[in-house]
Design a protein that fits this description.
Strands 1, 2, 3, 4 and 5 form a five-stranded antiparallel sheet that branches. The N terminus is likely disordered. The protein is an alpha+beta fold. Helix content is 42%, strand content 15%. The longest helix is centred in the N-terminal third of the chain and has 25 residues. It is built from six helices and five strands; from the N terminus they run H-H-E-H-E-H-E-H-E-H-E.
Length: 218
């Protein structure tokens, strides 16, 4: 309901602003100011709650995602900002159980839960095309996680770049073999997405490490 109100408010803002500029029906002007500020506050509060609610889920409830849900998550990735508007990241969407099981073994520890996810989005980039492929891919990956949380879904980041199997095989090379990635493409991470198996408490402001923030100089 709150979102519907905000959308309606924004659609009428120009009309109300015209009333303000035209010095007509000034009785509505205080109402215009209230609604405009209400809309801004509502968006700010929603985002504050969203970033606090996003947690890393390593357990998932069985079940497929709706195609519209998958598209919305990928849309969030494609809308993510990139260096020089390069937008050279690539996303490999995996939802078949066989490949999800294989991806859960790409490194020694920390990927086991991928086999139980409904979906895995593998974030890859070409270092020869974009020297900021890691940064751009990271922003897109986190954007997908925020979108998943906003939809009530669970997600978890699986680090691939710089990780290895116990025999020394780079995790990225294992992913390459599973997904037939071209030799020029490198894997940054895997975002596992699924239905929440349990509710996790939002992050608390009491745990924020403000001591890591430095003003003006270190």
């Amino acid at each position: 309901m709150c979102h519907l109100i905000v959308v309606s408010v924004l659609s009428y803002e120009k009309k109300l602003l015209a009333l303000e500029n035209g010095k007509k029906n000034l009785i509505f002007f205080p109402f215009y100011l209230f609604i405009r500020n209400f809309a801004k506050i509502s968006f700010a509060m929603d985002y504050e709650q969203l970033v606090a609610a996003r947690r890393s889920h390593c357990t998932f409830e069985k079940g497929e995602l709706e195609p519209a849900q998958v598209q919305t998550i990928l849309r969030a990735a494609l809308l993510a900002p990139t260096s020089r508007n390069n937008r050279s990241w690539q996303f490999v969407v995996v939802d078949n159980s066989c490949d999800l099981d294989k991806l859960s073994d790409v490194k020694e520890h920390g990927a086991e839960f991928v086999r139980n996810a409904s979906l895995a989005v593998v974030v890859v980039g070409n270092p020869d095309v974009n020297d900021c492929w890691v940064e751009d891919g990271s922003i897109a990956a986190f954007s997908m996680q925020l979108q998943a949380e906003d939809m009530g879904l669970a997600s978890c980041w699986v680090q691939v770049r710089g990780r290895r199997l116990s025999d020394g095989t780079p995790a990225g090379e294992v992913v390459r073999g599973i997904l037939d990635l071209p030799p020029e493409m490198e894997t940054l991470c895997i975002i596992a997405v699924g239905r929440k198996a349990m509710a996790l408490k939002p992050h608390s402001d009491d745990t924020l490490k403000w001591e890591n923030v430095h003003l003006e100089k270190y």
